[in-house]
Design brief:
Blueprint: H1 13-32, E1 36-37, E2 43-45, H2 46-52, H3 58-63, E3 66-68, E4 74-77, H4 82-91, E5 101-110, E6 122-131, H5 136-153, E7 158-164, H6 168-184, H7 191-199, H8 210-217, H9 228-244, E8 249-250, E9 262-270, E10 278-284, H10 288-291, E11 299-305, H11 306-315, E12 328-332, H12 335-350, E13 355-357, H13 364-373, E14 378-382, H14 384-389, E15 391-396, E16 402-406, H15 410-416
Bound molecules: adenosine-5'-triphosphate and magnesium ion.
């Protein structure tokens, strides 16, 4: 037997309706905020991510699926959504379109990680990118969109953490102060953070290692270093979130993994799914578009991990109704009856009603069992009497009630039922 590759999963019909529920909530939330779907390729030239995601990140350093194609080009499966969208924005000259450009996406992502609960090698993200505005209201809107989505799917007990990591200028000052402090504690840092110290010291604030955590607790705080503009920007975001009634906590250790973030960064974190508690992460990335060769265009976005959302819904006992059940099931008792069922089913489907009948030549008991399994709402047994009489008894499975319905009025009856 051949198994799926490590860190990937089949999504079977018994679960796919839950995915559809989450994806529909994503689409609907995006619509409310005026965001339109964008789809970019599953793979890109590797440079898109080297320049877009940043060469010092974990993603680029260890997690990318990179290979040479048959033409000798370096290709990478997208590890996240933003860089490809930024590439598409530049390539298609979308800076000349109506700004801000508001995009959303639903996409598989690929990262070579150690698989565990909520951490896969192929996973899926819902995300948005708003490009073109420097204003703090678009930050607040982005956060509000994420919150609206989480509410819509029924996620509770998540904490919204926000922070500012400043702009290029003020962050430099902070990085120097942070590096000086961390250098004093160099020996106690984990191996990974020792390596990060010169490349991406901010990322150390985000380390899950207990020793590192102890050290970073006493580290200088970025909010003491950001410039007046950055500070005003954060205050405005906070004010707007207050107006929207969104609760948040300021957390100076939220820095996000990617190099391209500036100013506002945020995460929604859950206590209900263990170590992989971050369900949504995002922030402002004012330098990304120009880094990819476009005209200087600010942007902000977030990404939600769909698997983590589903895990969270499961762990908190949120029930998702399966909307894909068959409405009407016919149990025909012979060949002529089966032909009648075929005719009725076709008519129901033409009227937008899901319907099915026996295709296995099963006995009546087995047919009822099957109808139950597929969650049929109505079942009608067609025997020779029904064929002759032109009418059939329809059983409503929920309460067992039965109604005699003429074949010619079947769709009408179901539409009203
Ligand atoms: P983490 O700290 O958990 O590794 P990250 O900072 O790498 O997260 P992002 O790049 O911000 O994550 O991705 C956004 C979201 O995508 C995360 O909040 C998470 O919900 C989800 N995600 C990231 N990596 C994985 C993965 N390997 N498997 C499943 N979901 C993931
Ligand atoms: Mg990661």
């Amino acid at each position: 037997m051949i198994n799926v590759p490590k860190g990937t999963k089949d999504i079977l019909p018994q679960d796919s309706y839950k995915w559809q529920f989450v994806e529909n909530a994503a689409r609907e939330t995006a619509r409310l905020f005026g965001a339109a779907e964008i789809r970019t390729p599953t793979f890109e030239h590797t440079e898109v991510f080297l320049r877009g995601v940043g060469e010092t990140t974990d993603i680029v350093n260890k997690e990318m699926y990179t290979f040479l194609d048959k033409g000798g080009r370096s290709i990478t499966l997208k590890p996240e959504g933003t860089a490809g969208i930024a590439r598409a924005f530049v390539e298609n000259g979308l800076n000349n379109s109506a700004l801000p450009a508001k995009f959303f996406y639903l996409t598989p992502c690929f990262r070579y990680e150690r698989p565990q609960a909520g951490r896969l090698r192929e996973f899926h993200q819902f995300g948005v990118e708003f490009l073109g505005s420097r204003s703090a209201d678009i930050d607040a809107e982005t956060i509000l969109l994420a919150k609206t989505f989480l509410d819509k799917v029924g996620i509770k007990n998540v904490t919204l953490y926000i922070n500012s990591i400043g702009c290029k200028e003020c962050r430099k000052k902070y990085e120097d102060a942070l590096k000086a402090y961390l250098n004093e504690n160099y020996d106690s840092l984990c191996a990974l953070c020792k390596d990060r110290l010169n490349k991406n010291p901010l990322r150390i604030l985000d380390c899950k290692n207990d020793e590192c955590k102890k050290i970073t607790e006493k580290a200088p705080k970025i909010l003491d270093y950001i410039c007046e503009d950055c500070s005003n920007h954060l205050e405005k975001v906070k004010k707007l979130l207050d107006i929207a009634g969104v609760e948040y906590k300021i957390n100076p250790n939220i820095v996000r993994g990617l190099d391209y973030y500036t100013r506002t960064v945020f995460e929604f974190v859950s206590e209900n799914i263990g170590a992989q508690g971050t369900v949504c992460g995002g922030g402002r990335y004012d330098g990304l578009i120009s880094e990819l060769g476009g005209t200087d265009t600010p942007g902000i976005g977030f990404a939600v991990g769909i698997e983590r959302i589903l895990l969270l819904l499961e762990n908190t006992g949120v029930n998702i109704e399966n909307p894909n059940k068959v409405k009407v099931y016919f149990a025909p008792m012979g060949e002529k009856e089966s032909e009648k069922a075929f005719e009725l089913v076709s008519d129901l489907r033409a009227n937008g009603i899901s319907a099915d009948f026996d295709h296995m030549g099963r006995g009546i008991k087995a047919q009822f069992k099957y109808a139950d399994k597929i969650g049929a709402e109505f079942v009608a047994v067609i025997g020779s009497n029904e064929l002759m009489g032109g009418a059939v008894k329809v059983k409503k499975m929920a309460d067992g009630s039965e109604t005699m319905v003429k074949f010619t009025e079947f769709s009408e009856f179901i539409l009203k039922a």
